[in-house]
Amino acid sequence: MSRVAAFEIEYVQYMDESGQALADLPNWATEVESLEHAYKWMLLTRLFDAKAVALQRTGQMGTYASCLGQEAIGAAIGLAMHPNDVFVPSYRETGAQLIRGSRMRDILMFWGGDERGSNPPIANQDFPVAIPIASQCLHAVGVATAFKYRKQNRIALCAIGDGATSQGDFYEAINLAGVWKLPVVFLVSNNQWAISVPRAAQSASQTLAQKAIAAGIDGVQVDGNDYIAMRDTLDQAIEKARSGNGATIIEALTYRLSDHTTADDASRYRSAEEVEVYKQKDPLLRLERHMRVAMGWDEGKQQSLKEQCQQQIEEEIQAYLTAEAAPPTEMFDYLYESLPKVYLKQRQQLFDEWQQHLGAREETVDTDVKESDHV
Amino acid sequence: MAEMMYWQAVQRAHDEELERDANVIILGEDVGLVGGTYKATSGLLDKYGAERVIDTPISENSFTGLGIGAAFMGVRPIIEIMSVNFAWLAMDQIMNNAAKVHYMSGGQLRVPAVFRIPGGTAHQLGAQHSARMEKVFMGVAGLRVVTPSTPKQAYGLLKSAVRSDDPVVIHEHENMYQFKGEVPDEEYLHPLEGSEVVREGTDVTLFGYNLSVHWCLQAADILSEEQRIEAQVVDLYSLSPLDREGIHKAVANTHNAVIVEEAEPVCGVGAEVMAIINEEAFFELDSAPIRVSAANVPMPFARNLELAALPDAKKIVAAVMAQRAAR
Question: In CATH, what number does B2-183 get?
Fold first, then answer.
């Protein structure tokens, strides 16, 4: 017997839980601006995320998927990608979406059940959030195929969770990425839980990164709560893809500190003790501690950044809450390139009913005014 | 006008569209080296290269999803799914993604993809190789579904589908690639919407699509020769959207309707056309519309049972006679 293949999976971590550097940091990570800039986005994401949950709890928004505890991943994606790359997200990369140009009001609109939120005024070709699990992996390799075919210097970044690695679409996508050497990066946020199914029940594979091996691409595991490790690993994978050297799976180890969505209650299936352990690994706390020790970050800077973020969030929430509803006829507007004849009649009918309804409402308002006059 | 076979018409459309627009690529199993199971892409690998005529791994969902992703970027993939029976494996990508993302992104992401899918009952291929899925596709808003009955339509519909920014499913038929017909020598774009009266008649309208148009024409000849009944035949080459006006007009002309579909009747083309007749032309009717459909069973493997399960000209004639007797 002889061995025909062997592999190993690297693990990347730069900071321990206290923010202490474990190794020589990459050059960019010794620059104050780089880390402060990332931290600013992570804090904004966290504060926004909490507000979004509050809006749902008070009936002002629909179901929302919190990214609490996973902010380092979103920030690293957003800051590592070039503007003209294409981001193919799942639903927990709010931070990356913000950095890439979605406004907070767009994100609130989307979760608030207004599809105009999926059409933010951004110049890039990023995809809307994919709700079916892993279906977007194939779109990402399609995007990468388009880049390769047109000899463009662009990459696709596909974000999925640990649960998505059980889907056929994921395996099919990494297979194509390998066989056609496509400029794509698969970022797996392994937050340990796919709703109530723990990572161990998802796959018998020792790491999720090693799924890359069977597809003939690279796989690496990284501490997803360590912004420096996250960003450095992404930079390398993106550069590799961009220079024509193929795809990478990055398994980012993290933890979903929140429920799966606001429609979930995670206390039904996991212990408070477990959550407590991961709270100590908080990505914001870690970067903040590192910046305090290494870069003179202090309470004053922290407070002023927080206030700045909160003000920004309040403005965006107001914009969301006061946005005018879309006309009902919009339900037909993006169905086809141009609306088939059979739909024109339906659209007209809806328009007429809507106008009638508006008219009736105005009459009601008039009556109200008269009544109040009597009072 | 030159006479050519159906597969040659499809091949020519491919060739011209690849030549015209560098965004057009072909994806599928055995479309390159072999030139397609039904020769519809023959010679194109040599002419346009492996970057544009792409043999994919055997995984329908893979290349369908990849094609949709590339289409989001403005590439215009013509995706050949070798047999419609295998399209079941790619249905989430076709129905849940291609059909919806344009809508869900507020028009931001278009899917200018073509899904060329041979289907129908060929010759003793058994239940899992004889699916007729047109009724499944036409039930999904956001897709266009067309189904050519002649080489001319096969040529012109493919060319129009490639140029459309909508996802278009082209339902071809495994048994029709050898059919011959006239195709214009000059470039021809067939409209993606509408229907076509392919035989004039005043006594009854036979609605068909794809292969069943030919059964309708045979039946119309028999009815004319043996019964002096002149049937109008309408080709519903666009299954989604269906041509409501054309259906209304035809029923107003003959006042009797028979719908012929190769698929099982439940939730099918016949049911939908009948509903449209009910909504648009009920008071034009002299008799209750009738469907001539396949038996509502998985397609049998045995030849005698297969034939028994499918519509044919004789069954259409019998339906017309029964309809007249009942009125």
Answer: 3.40.50.970
